[in-house]
Amino acid sequence: MGANQQIRPPGQAPDRAEATQVFAPAQLPRGGGPNQNRPGLGGRPEEAAERTQFISVGAVSREPAPLEVEDEPAPAVKRKRTGLVVSLVSVVALLALAAGAVFLVPGLAEKVGLRPSEPDVPIAAPSPPVQFTPTLRRPGADSPAPTAAGVQAALAGPASNSVLGALTGTVIDPTTGDVLYAQNADTTLVPASTTKVLTSAAALLALPHSDQLTTKVVQGDQPGTVIIVGGGDPTLSSFAAGKDTVYPGAAHLDDLVAQVKTAGPVDTVLLDVGRYTGDSLAKGWIPGDVQGGYIAPMVPAMLDGGRADPTAAVSPRAANPARALAEKFAERIGAKVPAKATTTAKPDAKVLGEVRSAPIVELVDNALQNSDNVLAEAVAREVAKETGHEVSFTGATEATTKILRDNGFDVSTVRLSDGSGLSTDNLVSAALLADILRVAAAPDGKDPRTAKLRPLLGGLPVAGGSGTLAGRYQGPADAVGKGWVRAKTGTLANVNSLAGVVLTKDGRLLVFAMMSNGSNAAEARPALDAVAATLRQCGCR
C-alpha cells in the first residue's frame, strides 16, 4: 500500500445503499425508461429540465349531491267502462305511489290529510366544501431570497463543529448565482463518492441520454462455438424476467441464452473483452475492496456488477467477472468455457443474440442514488469512448475533465484517478461540485447546459428517504432536513462529503457542497447533515 492509502473500518461501506425506500414529501422524480415499469425521465433532456418542480398537494373535497325527491303522481286519466277493471287497478297503484310520495316529502302528508307513521326528518343544508390547503410550495424566484449575511450567521455554529476536521464548503443561490457562503471552497480535498457528480455530469453532457449498452453473442470460427462480446454493460441480470437485482431495468441473461439457442447447439463459449484497455483496478484503490464488496475489476462483460448477491449493494465481487458471466451463460445453454477463453470476434461475425441495458440517463440515476462504483466506472469509460479517448481509467478521467472544461467548468485544480471516488488520489473542490449542481438547478432554460444536467437532481438521494441517505437525518439536529435535502454522499476512511440541494422553509432552492477530511464517519456524517438541515429551517434573510 502507498503512504496515503487508508483502511476502512470493518463493515463500513463507502456509501451503503438501504434496501427500503421511504417516499419523502419533497422527493424529486427519478429516472425511468423503456426497461422499467415505473415512469421516468426518458431520454430527452428538455423533458428532464422540467422535473425539479415541487408539486402542490392537498385535500380535495366534493359537495354532496342534491337530494332526489320523487315527483307527485299525475291525475288519473278517464277511460271507457270496457277498461273498468284495469282502470281500478291503475288507480289503486297510483294511490299507493301517491301515498309513498306523500310520506317522503316533509309537510305534504298533513296538507293532504294523511298522518305519517313517523315524524318528519329535517333536511340539513349541505356542508360547505373543504378549503384546498397546499402542503408543499414549488421553489421559485418569487420566494424570499436568503442573504449572504443570513446564511453565514446560520452556519456559523454547525460548520464550526470540531468533529468535521478540515472542512471546506460553499452555498449558492441558483436563481441568482450568488455565493452566499464560502469556506476555503476552492481548496481541493479527497472527495470520496461525490466524485460521481463529476462523472455523471460529464456523461450527461457528452452522451445521448437514451443510449444503451449492448451485450452480444456472435458466431465463432468453429461450429458450436460462440463468443460473448462485452459492450460495457455491468448490469446484465442473472435473475429471471420480472425479478430485479440492484439494477432496475437491466437486461436478462436468460433472454440472451434463449436467442442463441434458436441458432443451433452450442458446445463452447468464449469471451471478447477488447472494449476496455489498461488496468482493471485503479490507482488509490484498496485491493480488499473487491472482496469487501465495494468494487469489481473493471471489464466490459459482467453479470450483476460482479456481485455474489445480486440484491445487495455491498456484496463480495468476482475476481474475474467476465469469466463468471461466460460460465453462467455456458451452464444455462449446456456448453463449456475453456481454460483460455478470451478471443477477438470478427467485425462481421454473425450476431446470434443481443440485449440492451437501461438508458444512460437511468444508469446515471442508479449510480448516484446507490453510489454504485462499478456503474460509475462503466459510465466514465463510455464518455472516454464517445470522445475518442482510451477506454481505460486514464482515458476516462481525462475525458471527464475535458468535457467539464469544454462546458465552462473550472477544473484547473482537479485530479482524478477514477470515476467512482474510491481512489484516495482524487482531489476536487467544493466550489466545482456546487457549480455543477448550480447549473443543474437553474430555474429557467437560458443556460443550454441545464437541460442536459437536470437529471443529476433526480438521482440525488433524499434525506431519510432513499439511496445512501435513507438511514440518515434521524437525529435531533438534522431531522428537520428529512425529505427536504437531496444530496450525493461521499465516505472513505477519514473522508466525508455531502453535495446537493435543499429547499428552505421560504421555498427557495439552495445548492451546497461540504467536504470534510481528517474526520470520523460516525461523527462527521450527522454533523454534515446538520449543516444542510440548518439551511432548510432558516430563512437566512
Give a written overview of the molecule.
The chain has 541 residues and is α+β, with helices and mostly antiparallel strands. Helix content is 28%, strand content 12%. It has helices at residues 45-48, 84-104, 108-111, 148-155, 195-206, 253-261, 288-292, 321-333, 360-369, 373-386, 393-406, 430-440, 448-453, 455-459, 521-537, and strands at 166-173, 178-183, 188-189, 214-219, 225-229, 268-272, 351-356, 428-429, 485-492, 495-503, 509-517. Helix 5 runs parallel beside helix 10 (373-386) and helix 5 crosses helix 11 (393-406). The relative contact order is 0.19.
List the helices and strands and how they pair.
Layout: H1 45-48, H2 84-104, H3 108-111, H4 148-155, E1 166-173, E2 178-183, E3 188-189, H5 195-206, E4 214-219, E5 225-229, H6 253-261, E6 268-272, H7 288-292, H8 321-333, E7 351-356, H9 360-369, H10 373-386, H11 393-406, E8 428-429, H12 430-440, H13 448-453, H14 455-459, E9 485-492, E10 495-503, E11 509-517, H15 521-537
Parallel strand pairs: 5-6
Antiparallel strand pairs: 1-2, 1-11, 3-8, 4-5, 4-7, 9-10, 10-11
- First-residue to last-residue Cα separation: 49 Å
Order of helices and strands: HHHHEEEHEEHEHHEHHHEHHHEEEH
How does the helix and strand content classify structurally? alpha+beta
Largest beta-sheet details: 5 strands, antiparallel
Descriptors:
541 residues; alpha+beta; 5-stranded antiparallel β-sheet; 4-stranded mixed β-sheet; globular
